[in-house]
Amino acid sequence: ATPTALLAATGRGAELGVLVRGPEVLESLRRIDTVVLDKTGTLTTGRMELAEAVAAPGEAVEEVLRLAGAVEHRSEHPIGRAITAAARQRCGSELPEVSGFAATAGVGVLGTVEGRQVRVGRPDDASDLAQDLRDALAHAESEGRTAVVVELDGRAAAVLVVGDTVRPGSWRAVRRLRGMGLEPVLLTGDRPGAASAVAAQLGIRKVHAAASPERKAELIAELRAAGRTTAMVGDGVNDAVALASADLGIALGSGTDAAIGAAGLTLVRGDIESLVVAVRLARRTLATIR
Ligand code: ADP
Ligand code: MG
């Protein structure tokens, strides 16, 4: 391999919005046969909005939203931003103070607001929920939306449904990757219903849902152990470990610093269409060198 050709390809990549950490990344890119894709913020825009808020019997929805919005104000996650924006809009821009804030990647957030313990996050066991909340959850998931539960002092007080849309280029990019012999796999921390709805829209047949950040990394390790040369594409703090364990970690330019720091390659334009361009560039460059 001539260093000059690699350098030229690296420069060409930069022009196309594909930043590689070093020229050796092109070789990894050429060899991959499996592309694992995060859902929220990667295949979808990550620009979420509150679509629905359903309170448990005896709870006032505006009040629950106000407390949830206050805690989520501290979160960087697209779900958190959507909830805070909706709370501000509906309850006035002054959100109360939060103490003891903690965020768990891929799970949710918690904190104390006005003396109440507020938790917002992934519903673990829907069967414990009031009927209205269970219905809201099921309906949201059948449409590929994400539903989170707000707990006040340990009791489920509301289901908040947030929705974002599949990126306009995702469908074509997935089809092209497959056309190039790469198998797409969807990997998400979101629940199975929402995951399969998005996978179905994109024609992705392999889906792993409800994966914690550690589980994401484990799945990558399993694929590699099975002989797959695996790229992982993600945007979130929750993807960083998986990005680091893949043969090639790929971050979206729109993603978090943690994701970009853990990746060998960054798609500056923040969409997976430029991944298709990148693979083509790597294959062409290294084919001429050999
Ligand atoms: P993805 O893998 O699709 O990018 P994440 O791992 O970031 O999704 O999130 C997984 C799940 O964790 C979300 O669907 C949600 O239920 C919960 N979650 C994560 N962050 C938050 C937050 N700030 N507020 C509420 N729920 C959250
Ligand atoms: Mg994500």
UniProtKB/TrEMBL annotation:
**Mainly resides where?**
membrane
**What is one term from the GO cellular component aspect held by the record?**
plasma membrane
Q: Can the keyword Protein biosynthesis be found in this entry's annotation? A: no
Where's it found, cell-wise?
Answer: Cell membrane
Molecular-function GO terms, alphabetical: ATP binding; ATP hydrolysis activity; copper ion binding; P-type divalent copper transporter activity
Keyword list (alphabetical) reads: ATP-binding, Cell membrane, Membrane, Metal-binding, Nucleotide-binding, Translocase, Transmembrane, Transmembrane helix
Asked whether the UniProt record includes Metal-binding among its keywords, one would answer yes
List this protein's GO terms for biological process.
Answer: copper ion homeostasis
What does the sequence similarity comment in the record state about its family? Belongs to the cation transport ATPase (P-type) (TC 3.A.3) family. Type IB subfamily.
Question: What protein is this chain from?
Answer: Cation-transporting P-type ATPase B
Q: Which organism is it from?
A: Kitasatospora atroaurantiaca
Higher taxonomy:
Bacteria, Bacillati, Actinomycetota, Actinomycetes, Kitasatosporales
